[in-house]
Description:
The complex is a heterodimer. Chain A has eleven helices and eleven strands. Chain A has helices at 4-14, 31-41, 45-54, 71-79, 89-101, 134-145, 163-167, 180-192, 220-223, 235-238, 242-261, and strands at residues 16-19, 25-29, 57-59, 81-85, 105-109, 150-154, 172-175, 197-203, 206-212, 270-275, 280-285. In chain A, the strands form two sheets. In chain A, strands 6-5-4-7-8-9-10-11 form an eight-stranded mixed sheet, with helices on both faces. In chain B, the strands form two sheets. Chain B has a five-stranded mixed sheet, with no helix packed on it. Chain B has a two-stranded antiparallel sheet with strand order 3-6. Chain B is globular and about 45 Å long. Chain B contains one helix and seven strands; from the N terminus they run βββαββββ. The interface between A and B is medium-sized, with 48 and 21 residues.
Amino acid sequence: MGGFEPMAAGIEKRAVSAGRADGSSVRLLSSESARRIAEESGVSLRDVEKTALSSGVIPERYVRNFDSLCLDDQKRLMDATVAVVGLGGLGGCVCELLARAGIGHLILIDGDRFEDSNLNRQLLATMDTIGKAKTQVAYDRLQAVNPAVEAILRNGYLSAATATGWLAGASVVVDCLDNLKDRFLLERAAKALEVPMVSAALAGGFGQLMTIYPEDEGLSLVYGPVDTAPEKGAEVHLGTLGFTAALMASLECAEVIKILTGKGEVVRNRLLVMDLWNSRLDILPLQSDVRYGEGGTSCHEDRCPSES
Amino acid sequence: MERSIELRLFASLQRFIPNPEGRCPITPPTRIRDIVERLGIPVEEAKLIFVDGRRGDLNTVLNGGERVGIFPPVGGG
Lengths: 308, 77
């Protein structure tokens, strides 16, 4: 017999108490136990993990997220749908980190296939995946890393006609694209859907990032009006380096998790710039009347209740 | 009277930096556009301009002593 009751009973039966390095104790559910419970109860792995969290049992795969994240935060991630648009240097790494963090649903969008020139930076590009569709390779990787993640694949390029339909249901959109025209198109769709967009771009050892809420001016603060923005930027001369791509992807994931949990402070109406050749990081105000230190939006305080 | 500014050029613009310290002599009042043109930076690549931590533009006038950062458009991923 399948369903909720046997699932909840399975979790109680298989949860194991464990001591943490700080002396506290938690109840954990191994990934193998979660898989078996899902199989035996005929429910999804994500439902098993979610029910476990609701009963105070931490799926062991997420235990190192604690106490930086609390049970409620982890549940929020599991309930979230994040759209990753572009599965190259930024997107491949973003997918990996979001899946490991425990985002419940990913919408993966890219119409491209892997090629040799991707191998310097794109984690999903390997000798075995050259020539394969990026969405399918990303999906296979998700299955290997965290099969609880439910993914929707869009093996195509975003267009004005497809954008809002493909992104529908997303709570956050992550811009991992490689040209300015599509970034503006994505921003327009995210605004139409009234969801925040996290945007990063890189050229050589330089990277930049910002988070755009629907009411924010957004990309035109950085690139000027859409009709004057060029198709490509400095990356035409400098290429795109792996360490910069991975770093900017990590920063994008931090923004996503801050948005979803309400923790910390997002980079809003400001531009985070990284110059990795000169080891510099700065956060610049984008509105002309704001000076560094006064700008942006301070989000909620860390409001994780004690989980003891 | 000649004075100077501290110029920081980012990404593809770094190749136009006049010296490693970024010290750039000016005769005030000087517009940022004058410096951009003098250094041979394509004007359309001077996309984002900051002066002492505030947003500026090509027409911002400098009197010396300022810290100026100039960024090109960047779109790779």
